[in-house]
Amino acid sequence: MKVNGIHYRPVWQAADGSAVEIIDQTKLPHEFVVARLTSMADAAHAIRAMLVRGAPLIGATAAWGLWLAMREDASDAGLTSAYEALMQTRPTAVNLRWALDAGRAKLAPLPAGERVEAAAAFARHVCDEDAELNHSIGRHGLEIIRAIAAKKPGQTVNVLTHCNAGWLATVDWGTATSPIYQAHDAGIPIHVWVDETRPRNQGAFLTAWELGNHGVDHTVIVDNAGGHLMQHGQVDLCITGTDRTSANGDVANKIGTYLKALAAHDNGVPFYVALPSPTIDWTLADGFAIPIEERSADEVTRIPGRLDDGSIGAVTITPEGSKAANPAFDVTPARLVTGLITERGTAPATPEGLLGLFPERRAAGED
């Protein structure tokens, strides 16, 4: 996708081959900053501190973290240490484990002298594959939007999304936003209700910034407005992403997703979840075994933004001494999900629905 007319991915190998560069998402939307990662520790910090975030992008950044680690120490001990350090950065997004498991399996059989280049090739493959998967997700999601548009010719299709499942959360296109971008590019009148997504405001900060850069009509709303809009017929469908989907179709996504799914169910609004297959955790029978990350209370009690004097700062918004809890994700039961949009098509949020798209998992005994 483009920023000021220039194509960017959120993570890439520096042109001189000496580092990894990322868009520092903690600075958006007020500043566009490219940060350099020169060590595995830098990559781990970028994931943990959410300079990069979103399940697919976390996996891609971890893959580049393995490359940085192999430049520092390509021994078996170095590989094990890097794997363990990167695995500890974020607990909920399964793409992290997927990328690290695949990377370790690729590198472990090789002699130390071949691991640096192999790690770079692996990271590039992870990134390119993610972009392709997300473009395919968009093509399948576009058909859903086309069908809705056909039922209201000449009118705008209104989509509600939550958090940021855009190209900033992936390597390109995004998951939930890929159908939106492709509908916009196809000339379908489309408008997006953007949940602010407290406490880190990924919707207001990131999704709105993305959509604006691409020219997609959008409106930022407070998190609690979605149900009201649905009651008044102002939402045609919801599309969110997911950080981990269990084998039965339960989805873990940013906190507040469950409430949107409940409101959608109550008002007959289709609720879709867009995900690439590496986000499916076939080892979990249901989503309530997914570990839910508890983040710092400071994210709830303080909020960053541009101050009246033009400077960037943070302010405290709660009374001194008040405690704050900050679960980062919730689980939406499969029964509330209309369909799962994957790179292979859209499936019911059921074990059979997923296995119908991924029959090789049945052969592997993961049914």
UniProtKB/TrEMBL annotation:
It comes from the Bacteria. InterPro entries: IF-2B-related (IPR000649), IF-M1Pi (IPR005251), IF_2B-like_C (IPR042529), Initiation_fac_2B_a/b/d (IPR011559), M1Pi_N (IPR027363), NagB/RpiA_transferase-like (IPR037171). The keyword Amino-acid biosynthesis applies. It catalyses: 5-(methylsulfanyl)-alpha-D-ribose 1-phosphate = 5-(methylsulfanyl)-D-ribulose 1-phosphate; 5-deoxy-alpha-D-ribose 1-phosphate = 5-deoxy-D-ribulose 1-phosphate. The keyword Amino-acid biosynthesis applies. Pathway: Amino-acid biosynthesis; L-methionine biosynthesis via salvage pathway; L-methionine from S-methyl-5-thio-alpha-D-ribose 1-phosphate: step 1/6. Its EC number is 5.3.1.23. Substrate binds at residues 53-55, 90, 202, 253-254. GO terms for biological process: L-methionine salvage from methylthioadenosine. The active site is at residue 243. The record marks 163 as: Transition state stabilizer. Coiled coil: none annotated. Gene3D superfamilies: translation initiation factor eif-2b, domain 1 (1.20.120.420), Translation initiation factor eif-2b, domain 2 (3.40.50.10470). GO terms for molecular function: S-methyl-5-thioribose-1-phosphate isomerase activity. Keywords: Amino-acid biosynthesis, Isomerase, Methionine biosynthesis. HAMAP family: Salvage_MtnA (MF_01678). NCBIfam families: eIF-2B_rel, PRK05720.1, salvage_mtnA. Belongs to the EIF-2B alpha/beta/delta subunits family. MtnA subfamily. Catalyzes the interconversion of methylthioribose-1-phosphate (MTR-1-P) into methylthioribulose-1-phosphate (MTRu-1-P). Also catalyzes the interconversion of 5-deoxyribose 1-phosphate and 5-deoxyribulose 1-phosphate. Part of a bifunctional DHAP-shunt salvage pathway for SAM by-products. PANTHER family: METHYLTHIORIBOSE-1-PHOSPHATE ISOMERASE. This is Methylthioribose-1-phosphate isomerase. It comes from Thalassobaculum fulvum.
